[in-house]
């Protein structure tokens, strides 16, 4: 029911918006709550004593459980490696380290609360989940252990994260899920809103919000441009959102889910209208700071969309030997491209593959939306029997997809009542889980070292 941490790692680490509704504060930083969040603060306050925001506490004791510097270092190395972020600028490293420490503190509180409720996670269950995560990263468990050690982490760090997730989810299933109810009237109301908004355009957006006082605008713009440059180089958007965004959506990787432009500030409306799926835009000036937007998808409510088509694909893969240089890879890719251009229908794939020493794998009923944005645009314009241009890298080899069939969507039907109910229940479980974790933080004794 909870947003899976393992799923976030696998894709790079929920706000319900059926029918286009979103939280109004998507571009409001957490600290910018009107009325000082109800606190009785003087208008012209004076700080007594010296506060140095650059001081970072590297370790912590959480209710007598010690989080060591090694724990933080290994988790940080693991997170960066699994998110394909082998190196980050020095000016971001301290911020990431502090974020990792906060995550470890939350994880410790979750495990402690589960144990207090006599919820146990066995070592066998942790090992089984570790094996499954390893397979998700196309490695055997032993290969995964070696990989984690090679990047400065360990299997202990990943298993600790797995234990925290299993323990917390079981605690929620016991103390939260049974008490979450969704009425038939609520489901019917959502269905009615969907019907009324049929044909309206929606955008699936992710956002990073950076506050910028006038004296720091140039610095914030420069930092935003560095982030965008790294994202265009392959770094995951969610990584920067979770670690640097000041919006309330940072906990879900900046995900605004499906929204209609009318709920966004005018500056973001204009930017989103000009974006293509998979594109990043920014830094976009908005009141109080700047935003970076990523357009994950777009659609029309209850309207058939070409991206809902399901494809029958035949994939050719030509792997490169170890130590292949960029020039060697380019030459082999050029030969591969010439060969794939000679493909005339899926029946001829096997002969071409044998000729060039490529592997062939069939994939049926692949939704267009599951492909990377760049490939989506290509396959939507292809005829059956045609091949995509080669794509890949020197380390992974080169690939091409041959379109063998396409089932286009006829209509876009309403989601089932069960699906709507399930999503509402998931959202409410997540909200209550956030409140529970907030209370655990408030009651905890945390000593920073």
From TrEMBL:
GO terms for molecular function: peptidyl-prolyl cis-trans isomerase activity. The keyword Protease does not apply. Residues 1-24 form the signal peptide. Transmembrane segments: none annotated. Residues 200-297 form the PpiC domain. InterPro entries: OMP_Chaperone_SurA, PPIase_dom_sf, PPIase_PpiC, SurA_N, Trigger_fact/SurA_dom_sf. Gene3D superfamilies: 3.10.50.40, Porin chaperone SurA, peptide-binding domain. Keywords: Chaperone, Isomerase, Periplasm, Rotamase, Signal. The keyword Cytoplasm does not apply. PANTHER family: CHAPERONE SURA. This is Parvulin-like PPIase.
């Amino acid at each position: 029911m909870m947003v899976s941490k393992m799923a976030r790692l696998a894709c790079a680490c929920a706000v319900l918006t059926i029918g286009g509704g979103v939280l109004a504060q998507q571009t409001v930083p957490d600290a910018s709550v009107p009325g000082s969040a109800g606190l009785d603060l003087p208008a012209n306050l004076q700080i007594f004593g010296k506060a140095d925001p650059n001081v970072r506490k590297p370790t912590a004791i959480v209710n007598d459980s010690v989080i060591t510097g090694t724990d933080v270092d290994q988790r940080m190395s693991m997170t960066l490696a699994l998110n394909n972020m082998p190196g980050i600028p020095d000016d971001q490293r301290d911020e990431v380290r502090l974020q990792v420490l906060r995550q470890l503190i939350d994880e410790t509180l979750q495990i402690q609360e589960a144990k207090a409720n006599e919820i146990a996670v066995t070592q066998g269950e942790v090992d089984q989940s570790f094996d499954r995560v390893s397979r998700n990263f196309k490695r055997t468990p032993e290969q995964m252990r070696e990989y984690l050690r090679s990047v400065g982490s360990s299997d202990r760090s990943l298993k600790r994260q797995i234990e925290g997730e299993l323990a917390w989810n079981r605690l929620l299933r016991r103390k939260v899920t049974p008490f979450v109810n969704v009425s038939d009237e609520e489901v019917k109301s959502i269905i009615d809103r969907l019907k009324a908004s049929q044909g309206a355009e929606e955008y699936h957006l992710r956002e990073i919000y950076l506050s910028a006082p006038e004296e720091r605008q140039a610095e914030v713009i420069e930092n935003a441009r560095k982030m965008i440059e790294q994202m265009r180089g392959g770094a995951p958007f969610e990584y920067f959102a979770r670690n640097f965004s000041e919006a309330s959506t940072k906990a879900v990787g900046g995900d605004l889910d499906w929204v209609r432009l009318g709920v966004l500030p005018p500056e973001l409306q204009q930017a989103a209208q000009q974006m293509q799926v998979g594109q990043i835009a920014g830094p976009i000036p908005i009141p109080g700071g700047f935003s970076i937007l990523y357009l994950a998808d777009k659609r029309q409510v209850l309207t058939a969309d070409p991206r809902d088509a399901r494809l029958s694909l035949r994939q050719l893969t030509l792997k490169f030997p170890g130590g292949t240089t960029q020039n060697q890879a380019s030459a082999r890719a050029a030969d591969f491209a010439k060969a794939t251009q000679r493909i005339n229908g899926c029946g001829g794939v096997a002969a071409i593959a044998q000729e060039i020493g490529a592997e062939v794998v069939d994939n049926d009923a692949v939704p267009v939306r599951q492909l990377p944005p760049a490939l989506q645009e290509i396959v939507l314009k292809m005829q059956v029997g045609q091949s995509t241009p080669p794509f890949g890298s020197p380390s992974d080899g080169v690939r091409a997809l041959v379109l063998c069939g396409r089932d286009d969507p006829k209509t876009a039907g309403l989601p089932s009542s069960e699906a709507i109910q399930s999503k509402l229940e998931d959202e409410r479980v997540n909200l209550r889980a956030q409140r529970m974790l907030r209370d655990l933080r408030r009651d905890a004794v945390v000593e920073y070292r």
